[in-house]
Design brief:
Blueprint (H helix, E strand, L loop, with lengths): L10 H13 L2 E2 H8 L3 H13 L3 E4 L2 E4 L7 E4 L4 E6 L5 H12 L5 H13 L4 E2 L4 E9 L2 E10 L8 E8 L8 H15 L4 E7 L3 H8 L4 E12 L2 E11 L1
Parallel strand pairs: 9-10
Antiparallel strand pairs: 1-3, 2-3, 4-5, 5-7, 6-7, 7-8, 8-9, 10-12, 11-12
Length: 242
């Protein structure tokens, strides 16, 4: 199934799919009981969803299927980092990493995404309204960074995606952020997206310079959009054409 192909399911399969999406991955027996399907019927429907690439079934656990590739390990000299598609059980590490980055007061968009994940409890989205994917950077199996792409629900903007990316401070300077961005842009290109957007407070000059290094340009500036440490700060909206 194409990474951004809208789902088209009959009513029963859609109920199962949407339940799994809403709950971010669940044990099969829990989903079956919650939805009230007879076990054999439920098993058949899940098999069809698995066959058609809508759900992944691992150890009797159901998760949304998204074609985001495999992990890649990189030797960066004094450390080894893996860049891979995020799984539902990464959500705690991702939110924790976002919170740590947000505490620096320079990346407000990441705070909004972290709040959304906390509220929904689900990492991935893939439906007619939106698709949301994450890649993570791990060191010794611990999440130290993320990159996130989210497509909007509006037809006129379906070729675009909002991007956020962040890295725990002690792991910066090794090239991990660059690897995360490159992985996200590769996926966006394969998904036939045309533009990605990112927004920063104007005071976050290092992030703006970092994103510019990939060819991004300033699309717009919103005056006094943020209030940081009691001061009004402009928002710099950046775009990158693929």
């Amino acid at each position: 199934m194409d990474s951004l192909e809208p789902i088209d399911l009959d009513a029963d399969r859609r109920r199962i799919y949407e339940y799994v999406e809403q709950h971010g991955g669940v044990p099969s027996d829990r989903a079956q009981a919650a939805l009230g399907f007879e076990p054999r019927r439920f098993g058949h429907l899940v098999s069809m969803l698995d066959r058609d690439g809508y759900l992944d079934v691992h150890d009797d656990r159901l998760e949304i299927a998204l074609d985001t590739g495999v992990g890649e390990t990189h030797d960066l000299g004094d450390l080894t980092a893996t860049i891979r598609p995020a799984r539902q059980d990464d959500i705690g590490g991702i939110v924790g990493t976002m919170r740590q980055v947000v505490e620096e007061g320079r990346y407000v968009e990441a705070e909004s995404v972290a709040q959304q994940l906390d509220y929904e409890g689900a990492l991935l989205r893939h439906n007619e309204r939106e698709s949301r994917v994450f890649f993570v950077a791990t060191v010794e199996d611990e999440v130290v960074g993320w990159v996130h792409l989210e497509t909007p629900e509006l037809d006129k903007l379906e070729h675009t995606a909002q991007l956020t990316v962040g890295l725990i401070e002690e792991y910066r300077g090794h090239g991990i952020g660059r690897l995360l961005i490159e992985r996200a842009l590769d996926w966006a290109d394969e998904a036939h997206l045309h533009k990605v957007y990112n927004s920063f407070p104007a005071t976050n000059e290092s992030a703006i310079t970092f994103f510019e290094a990939f060819g991004a340009t300033v699309a717009a500036t919103r005056s006094d959009h943020y209030r940081i440490d009691g001061e009004r700060v402009d928002q710099v909206m950046m775009e990158l054409e693929l």
